[in-house]
Amino acid sequence: MTGKRISSPEELEQLRKRILSKRGSNKLIVSICTMSVCGQSRGSVDVCGRFKEEIRRVGLEDKVDIKETGCQGFCEREPVVIIFPEGIYYVNVKPDDVPEIISTTLAKGKLVERLLYTDPVTGEKGAKESDIPFYKNQMRIVFGNNRHINPTDINDYIALGGYSALSKALFQMTPEQVLEEIKKSNLRGRGGGGFPTGIKWETTKNAPGKRKYVIVNCDEGDPGAYMDRSLMEGNPHAILEGLIIGAYAMGSHEGFIYVRQEYPIAYENTIQAIKQAEEYGFLGENVLGSGFDFEVDVHCGAGAFVSGESTALMSAIEGKVGEPKMKYIHTAVSGIKGNPSCLNNVETWANVPLIINKGAGWFNSIGTDRSKGTKIFSLVGKVNNTGLVEVPMGMTLRRLIYDIGGGIPNGKKFKAVQTGGPSGGVIPEQYLDTPIDFDELTKLGSMMGSGGMVVMDENTCMVDTARYFVSFCCEESCGKCIPCREGLRTLREILTDICEGKGQEGDIEAIEDIAKAMQDASLCALGTTAANPAFTTLKYFREEYEAHIKEKRCPAKVCKALTSYYIDPEKCTACMICFKNCPTEAIHGGKGIIHWIEQEKCIKCNTCFEVCPPRFSAVRRISGEPLPLTPAPGTKVIREKRR
Amino acid sequence: MVSRTKSPKPTKVSTTVSKVIRNYQQDKDKLIQILLYLQSTLGWLSREVLTEVSEQLQVPITQVYQIASYYKAFSLMPRGRHIIKVCLGTACQVRGSPRLLDTISAMLNLKPCETSEDMRFTLETVNCLGCCAMGPVVVVDETYHTKPSPSDLRKLFESAK
Amino acid sequence: MTVTLQIDGKEVKAREGMTILEAAKEAGVEIPKLCYHEKLKPYGACRICSVEVERKGRARIVASCGYPVEQGLVVRTRSPRIDRIRKTLIELIAPTTMVDGEVVGEIKKLAKEYGANIHRFESRFRAKPTRCILCGQCVRYCDEVIGEHAIGFVGRGIERRAVFFPEKAKACLTCQACFDLCPTGKIPSETDFVVFDGFSIDDYLAGEL
Ligand SMILES: Cc1cc2nc3c(=O)[nH]c(=O)nc-3n(C[C@H](O)[C@H](O)[C@H](O)COP(=O)(O)O)c2cc1C
Ligand code: SF4
Ligand code: FES
Ligand code: FES
Predict the structure, then answer these.
(1) Pocket test for ligand 2, best of A522, A528, A529 (most atoms within 8 A of CB)
(2) Crossing angle, helix A542-550 and helix A532-540, to 10 degrees?
(3) Does the CB atom of residue C141 touch ligand 4 within 6 A?
(4) DSSP line for C48-98
(5) What is the pLDDT of residue C63?
(6) What average pLDDT does this structure show over B23-33?
(7) A460 CA to middle of ligand 4, Å?
(8) A209/A284 same-domain check
(9) Which of A250, A276, C30, C150 shows the smallest number of beta carbons within 10 Å?
(10) Cα–Cα nearest to A222, from A198, A195, A190
(11) Residue A626: CB partners within 8 Å, gap ≥ 6?
(12) Which chain C residue's Cα is nearest to A515?
């Protein structure tokens, strides 16, 4: 163990040089995401295994290195294989494609055309990462290293200059200078609130008390977001380095990393990273020979969205139930066991080494007036390119969704984008040119949040969306305070009634009254923001609420109680596809006989609508109008199947 | 697969618990971590186990139960041999996971949170597994399935004994 | 150290570390409360005690039972905004606490004072009425003052409940301290002293709560 310990900045530099020279600069590197659930669920481990096997078989071991990495961002196209130094980019690779990649690309430097990425909109192919619109328009200063790093090998991080910011902070800067640099950078918290990080650090630094804690919040409870998972899984040392720098600035010697239980790989990689950092002397007593001591422990969450709230998270670390407390004295002053405790989000910490290395001036050159740097979003939902994207603050929502995301699939119309998770709101089309910025999004009634960005198309019902988020909070709140618990319970019933066609006169006013009381009087930020989805959908899509309440019609044809499925006899070719796929056998008919749906049996699962081939489009959804008559059982097809 | 003991003998419970607590240095701050460990080895947290934890770690039974009933990771009921989790997170929701849940629910004849009488399946829902780009996501015994078709699922369930 | 603040237009002196609610009480201003108890740590669950505070020209709403007094703080314990909050909160808890179509005790008083329509959300209340508003006075008193831990919280969100632990309830036979604390009268009326029929941990585990 002592053999690996680094005890001065010079030794760290020497180690870095040794790692680089041992690797040689002219090796090809095949980078595959095998350390992330997205890659794994698509079979990237098998692809990687095949690479190893084939490379050994053809004897290319000393020309090619395989880099097993965490999430690289373009999860939708996994398994992805990137070949460096050129950055040749293959998507949806199967194990059987591997021999061809080896013989064509690795051996001869030629491309395997069929594995290249094809733009769904323009149909153009891109050979390299830098040709692909999804990547071209990003700015990956925080997230970009993931594809060069095996998260279980600290040497990979060191090779890229890792821990040099820590060394700089410890040996060339005083704690006050580090704090000053972070303050000058105007870094704001990435966990949702956008609180200025430097000010929080200063509060903890100046708060009385010998024991101080620094904490990483990797609870990431926002459903639909996974930036923190990918960073923690894919580049844990960057977060650790940020945390140690912060601890040094604030005079803390103990830290915690709170990882949610749903992220087993992130948990494993964090533990591994801590172990390696201890071995190398980045953690423990006398960090890098500077005389500064720092230890860190990992706390595994147990599944509760509200546990990501600062007081709740700190209670959980104390072994108590993770529910919020009143915090009129800030946790930065009185947190874990009454000691000053500074909690920051994963992405916030990951920005710290960059700022220390490149300076606050550099950081300030990116972004808008009041929001600096970049932000990672999880771009998901009804958008062509889904995945993690990192963009400079100030980019418009439109560019993000259309230039990077490639727009809405299947020619559908954009309806709204939901940001900020259960605390945020929906943003409709007319605000798509809003720049991404903490304050701008708040002005629209939504918020930046932690970075979830769920795109919704015309087939999304806004009342149902509000109902979804409210139900989410009903289950995920702690249930301690009255406005939040009873407010959510009642809101959920009202919204469910509206979705089921049982809305009443006065419901909209009731929603507004309850939402106001929740906003004003709830104990924690979950409750004060939980009505935002209802507020914003009401603000921008009031007519949809009214259609449900007054006409008993769901304009998006989503709400089950207000929608029926119907097979158009003029269009049905009796192809049997829906017939076979219906889970409840509600579809009748047969070969050459027009299909029809027995309404009593139909559970409105939408399967028939989805499987009916687009060239027939015989399944229709009907809302707010009477159902047309079904043909008599046994009617022969009217429309012939075109072959 | 994690082994699941159905109803362990009383003596065994206390020794299992005391071993785990010792591993965590008898540290009360680690209560949640201790319960997580017990949950993953035993499959569920019985009244007996929780009472043991309370007595051995010397934390009030009310605190132990508050935690065990608060978090989604804990189960206060025995669960089936195969755990099926359907993600209802926002991204999966937008891509049709509630309908997928209905389909699965109809196939297994189980409502969410229910376990079949023969202890074969437990159907659960989760709010986001961080696989949002590929939803809807269904996890069957720790294996992630992205956008599974009804026939894929039927095959999967049939092969799960 | 004393600080001077203004409550409803009155200059009030208070000791540092006191909460607004305590300072107001000493000054003879009564703020309504459902979860506060002088022997217990501030909890902040009922939010009925919400007041408006103004500092450096910025107004916000805080729970007076937890907010510490500050020099120069301006406090309003009644205002249209505060009254509306209290009205809505009472309307929201009324359905679960109703006994024979009426609310009781303190809640009844508050409903009258703030003009709450206790039937407003009745048709939307589809859970089993528990007659419990989860103020936690019983739970916290048993924990913080008695040290017996015979009653605790389980579940979360709208499924949160307060339940008795029969194995601990032997002490209840002589104690019964929580009987008088309960603002809805649930505990004395639904408990036959040692057998906590209907709301014990075993009822909860059997899925009956
Ligand atoms: C209900 C709720 C859930 C939260 N969940 C998270 C979370 O999962 N991750 C996170 O970083 N912050 C979360 N926060 C915000 C934290 O309370 C805290 O503000 C944040 O971690 C501070 O870090 P930052 O300043 O770097 O953003 C949550 C807040 C609330 C109210
Ligand atoms: S606002 Fe909701 S989550 Fe926050 S303390 Fe109140 S009940 Fe709990
Ligand atoms: S929403 Fe289903 S995995 Fe995130
Ligand atoms: S008395 Fe202050 S919140 Fe209940």
Answers:
(1) A522
(2) 90
(3) no
(4) TTEEEEEETTEEEEEETTTPBP-TT-EEES--HHHHHHHHHHHHHHHHHH-
(5) 98
(6) 96
(7) 40
(8) yes
(9) C30
(10) A190
(11) none
(12) C88
What Å distances lie between residue B75 and A576, B47, B60, B113, CA to CA? Answer: 42, 11, 19, 10
pLDDT at B133 over 90: no
For A498-513, the pLDDT digits (tens) are 999 999 999 999 999 9
Average confidence score pLDDT of chain A: 93
Find out whether the beta carbon of B128 lies less than 6 Å from any atom of ligand 3: yes
- A446 and A393 within one domain: yes
Q: Is C67 in the pocket of ligand 4 (CB under 6 A)?
A: no
Q: Could you write out the DSSP letters of every residue in B94-132?
A: HTTHHHHHHHHHHHHT--TT-B-TTS-EEEEEES--S-G
Asked if residue B92 and residue B34 are part of one domain, the reply reads no
From the CB of A224, is ligand 3 less than 6 Å away?
Answer: yes
Nearest to B91 among A42, A78, A380 (CB): A380
Residue B3's pLDDT band (cuts 50, 70, 90): very low
Interface of A with B in 440-479 (CB under 8 A): 452, 454-456, 460, 468-469, 472, 475-476, 478
Q: Over pLDDT 90: what percentage of chain A? A: 81
Domain that holds residue B61: 12-70
Q: Do B60 and C143 count as a contact with CB atoms less than 8 A apart?
A: yes
Q: Are A345 and A214 in contact (CB under 8 A)?
A: no
Q: Are residues A214 and A286 in the same domain?
A: yes
User: Which atom of ligand 3 is found nearest the CA of B87?
Assistant: 2
Residues of A within 8 A of C131 (CB-CB) are none
User: What is the distance in angstroms between the Cα of C188 and the nearest Cα belonging to chain A?
Assistant: 22
C125 touches chain B (CB under 8 A): no
Count of Cβ atoms closer than 10 Å to residue A264 Cβ: 14
One domain for residues A199 and A97: no
Mean pLDDT of A251-256: 98
Dist CA C82 CA C63 (whole Å): 11
Chain A CB within 8 Å of residue C159 CB? yes
Long-range contacts (CB closer than 8 Å, 24 or more residues apart) made by C90-93 = C90/C48, C90/C114, C90/C116, C90/C118, C91/C116, C91/C117, C91/C118, C91/C120, C91/C121, C92/A482, C92/A483, C92/A486, C92/A487, C92/A490, C92/A514, C92/A517, C92/C121, C93/A482, C93/A486, C93/C133
**Tokens 């130094």, residue?**
A85
Q: Give the domains, in start order, of chain C with CATH numbers.
A: 2-78 (3.10.20.740), 82-124 (no CATH), 137-205 (no CATH)
Residue A643 — very low, low, confident or very high, per pLDDT cuts 50/70/90? very low
Cβ(C37)–Cβ(C106) below 8 Å: no
Tokens found for residue B80: 């089936």
Query: Which residue of chain C is at minimal alpha-carbon distance from B60?
Result: C149
- Helix-strand-coil split of chain C, %, nearest 5: 35, 20, 45
- Let me know if residue B112 belongs to a domain: yes
Q: What is the pLDDT of chain B when averaged over all its residues?
A: 89
Residue finishing a domain among A402, A429, A457: A457
- C205: which chain B residues are within 8 Å (Cβ-Cβ)? 47, 76-77
So what's the ipTM on this one?
0.97
Residue A304 token pair? 């509760």
Sequence letter at residue A165: A
What CATH code is carried by the domain that includes residue A78?
3.40.30.10
Q: What angle do CA B128, A91, B91 make, to 5 degrees?
A: 20
d(CA C142, CA C144): 6
Quote the ligand 3 centre to A315 CA distance (angstroms): 27
In this prediction, residues B59-81 reach a mean pLDDT of: 95
Q: Indicate which ligand has the atom closest to the C-alpha of A197.
A: 1
Decide if pLDDT at C171 tops 70.
Answer: yes
Interface of A with C in 500-529 (CB under 8 A): 510, 513-514, 516-517, 520-523
